[in-house]
Each structure stands twice: as C-alpha cells, then as structure tokens.
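Sat 14:20. Reprocessing the chain from the morning session after the first attempt stalled halfway. Input below, unchanged.
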Amino acid sequence: MNQDIILLGHGSGGKLSHQLLDEVILPHLSSTGAAGQNDAALLQIGGSKLAFSTDSYVVDPIFFPGGNIGDLAVNGTVNDLSMMGARPLFISVAFILEEGFSKKEFAEILASMRRAADAAGVSLVTGDTKVVPKGKADRIFINTSGIGVLEHGLQIDGGQGRVGDQILVSGTIGDHGIAVLCAREGLGMQTGVTTDSAPLNGLVQELLGLGDALHVLRDPTRGGVATTLKEIALQSEIAITLREEALPVNEGVTGVCSILGLDPLYVANEGKLLAFVAPDRAQEALKIMRAHPMGCDAAIIGEVTSSGGGRIQMETVVGGMRGVEMLSGEQLPRIC
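Finished this time. Tokens:
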C-alpha cells in the first residue's frame, strides 16, 4: 500500500484518522496532544468561556430516512458544542454546490436547516456559497462552525474519566449509520430504521445538574461507540469494561448488522451521547436521561475499572471477555 496517499479510511474517525491527525495535521497546525483532542476548542475571551467547533458533511445519499444533510449538519455542530458542556448559540454555514444541482432540493435542505436550528435554539448567522463544475464534487457538501458559551465552572472533556465512573449511553446505537446505509444501497429492507440525528443540548443542560459528578460527555459519531470510548480511554488513561447485554440496539439495526456482518458498536450515531458519571450519581443520571425525549432508551453499559493503558474489554453475552479496539479502516464511508 502506498503510504503517501489519502485513503477513505482516513475519514473514518478510527485508527487511520488518528494517524493522519497525529502524523500530518497536528505537526503542521497545532501542538495539541491526545488529551486535548475534544469535540470543540475552549476559548477564554474576557470574562466569557466559549466553545468553538467546526465540521464538514459529505453524507451520501443527501436524503435518508428521517433526515437529510442539512439538519444533520446543524445537529452535529450543536452536539459537538454541547459535549463540552456549552450552550450552543451561533452557527455559520458554507455550501459547496456542484453545477447542475437541483434548486428544489437545495431549498428543501435549507428549510430543514432552519427547522433544526429553531428546534435547538441556535441562530444561523453567516455563511458562504461556492459552485464547482459538474463532476468536480458530489451534489452538495456543507461546512458548519459553531460557538457556544459555558455558563458553569465544570470541566467536562474526554480526559476527565475516573476509576469507578459508570458509563451511560442515551439510547439505541447504530441507527444513523444503518439508516444511511440502507438508503444508499437500496437494500429494500423493511427495517423501520431512521436516523437518530437530533440536537442534544436540551438533554445536556439537564445532565449539568449533576455538577462535578459529570465527568465526560461525547457523541459517538464516526467509528461508533467503540471508537469513541477508545478515544476517551486513551485521553483519560483509563481501562473500561463494557457489558454486551446492556447495549441498547433496536431490532432493525441488529438484523441489518447480522446480515451484513457489521458490529453496531462501530456504526455511527448522530443523536446519542455517552456520559461518564461518578458511581454514586449514576442512577440519578440514568433517571434524568430516561425522563428526556432524547434519552428514553438510556442504559448503563459499563464502567471505568482501573487507571492506565487505554484498554477496553467487553463481557460478552456468553460469559467471556473480548477486547474492543478503535475502528480499523472504513466500515461505512460518507456516513456524515
């Protein structure tokens, strides 16, 4: 394999993405180490502490069950800010359009973005549009950036996991990735699976009531729950044990994954969060999640068992243990 070219796997959010970040991008642009790689940057400006995030969306197809590239872009940026404990305020949006793209479809995407912004209570405040010749892009790509404000003194990031923390997920996993995959491949399966793309800022605001018992928040997008937990384990220098029987997976996702040989742990989510919570407040956190529309299927799926190593293991339903690693290669390209 030519080691000097970019592969699809470099956009997976998994091992190759981290290699590209650590070996190429960060040496040229930043001195941020693994412990500082979170969903948004924290900025101190005067007496205000802000979160700033940026993301690009290249999902294929651009329309899929339950959503489209537009509301996905808004929700994704809202969630990245929220995972730092920030209240999202403002979003910018930039479009790269391919010549020949339908104005009707573009208008539909724009309308969905406005609805998503209104639902999340954020404002779309600035943007840009570029058009490239036909064949030089794939219909539409979207970049969004967002700013949010931190209104508390808590430190919530991927480096704050502690021994004893209980790990919660806010709902069923793998919904978004499977919804997009079925739409892309025209599988015709009557799964009923739709994207879980949704804003999580309201749920996060409720969880902030846990105070300093809330240590880590992260939305498991590219690479799924497994890759995201591996990132947190490396950032916090902890070891994690998961319980397979506790993982919430809906029947449609389970069915498609079984047929195609996929593992839901590695399938993308766009409306779920992981939370690391002190053990004496975990049941309270679970109650908060289940009382909120975005967390009604929440579950405690594991715990931090020791410090050091960044190791993850899972108790399987048959009673054994297996290692859980970061996504290798590209399981489902262009999923967000």
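The CA atoms of residues 4 and 180 lie 30 Å apart.
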